[in-house]
């Protein structure tokens, strides 16, 4: 695995210390060229109180992590994907767009939701 894009379920699992999630990120972190990409909307879904989210705070500030902003170009791509798929979850669509742009697998707790948006998307369920 050459990096991974995380959805909200993956971040929650990481924060809770889920052993499968920790093992997946451990594999990613062993390659110094790998990046852990967290779409900004996903972070917004999960972030509640930094003082109580020490593990998540460390993850998002690590050298291998990138919080991917939703800029105008990506926002338009998300909207197009929603229109084509007939779905409405902009955060899920932003995860798909982000993963495709970075050529990464998505670590997710909801693989079927993402496959509706992109049937060929590489996903790792947790």
Portion in strands: 5-15%
What is the makeup of the main sheet? Answer: 5 strands, parallel
Side by side, the strands of the main sheet go 3-2-1-4-5
Could you tell me the radius of gyration in angstroms? 14 Å
CATH topology label: Rossmann fold
Poorly predicted ranges? none
Mean pLDDT over the residues: 95
Instruction: Identify the CATH class.
Output: Alpha Beta
CATH-level-4 superfamily name: 5'-nuclease
Number of domains: 1
Tally of helical segments = 7
DSSP, total strands? 5
Keyphrases for this structure?
14% strand, globular, 126 residues, 5 strands, five-stranded parallel β-sheet, alpha/beta, Rossmann fold
In short:
The protein is of the alpha/beta class.
Please describe what this structure looks like.
With 126 residues, this protein is an alpha/beta fold. The chain has a single domain, classed as 3-Layer(aba) Sandwich (Rossmann fold), CATH 3.40.50. The protein is built from seven helices and five strands, in the order E-H-H-E-H-H-E-H-H-E-H-E. The chain has helices at 8-15, 19-29, 40-46, 54-61, 72-85, 90-102, 111-117, and strands at residues 4-6, 36-39, 65-68, 105-108, 123-125. The protein has a five-stranded parallel beta sheet with strand order 3-2-1-4-5, sandwiched between helices. Helix 7 (111-117) links the parallel strand 4 (105-108) and strand 5 (123-125). Helix 5 packs across helix 6 (90-102). The model has no long low-confidence stretch (mean pLDDT 95).
